[in-house]
Sequence to fold (182 residues):
Amino acid sequence: MVDLATRKLPLAGRHGGSATVRLTPAAPASRISLRAPSDSIGDLSQALGLQMPNRPKTSASANGRHALWLGPDEWLVIDENGADLVGLAASAGVLHSAVDVSHRNTAVIVSGPGAEATLSGGCPQDLSLQAFPVGACSRTLFGKVEVVLLRLDEETFRVEVWRSFSDYAFGLLAEAAEDASL
Fold:
């Protein structure tokens, strides 16, 4: 019998927020950092089951899967159902690099009417609905850490953060949520 390490969720049991904001650790998800040339995107889109976005600050979502444009040849693909994204990308049979980052990242769902104000408490980017509409995504800073933001709806954001910085990010979000309710 082989003993396997059990990976503990970094934000297990953490909840926070205020009268206007809820902070909820996201459920475990599979993730890949995907790099590919433009002529591979059609086949990768078909293999992954969603049209890979090709413009800054855009994303595509279908059936619990999200593809976030991070750069001209770079995407973060998240599957909330735990699919084998590396295997799906490989089935496209085209040039690409897919690195499983499922255990590197975790996420916090920031929701409620004060979500935008909460994130603005640590993010220099304009997150107003006009500048950052539903479906917008961006790699940015929150406090002192790099995060990837995805606006899921008018009052809900997914904040992807490296697990080693997740306690700091959650704590800062909790402080900002308190300020947003004032």
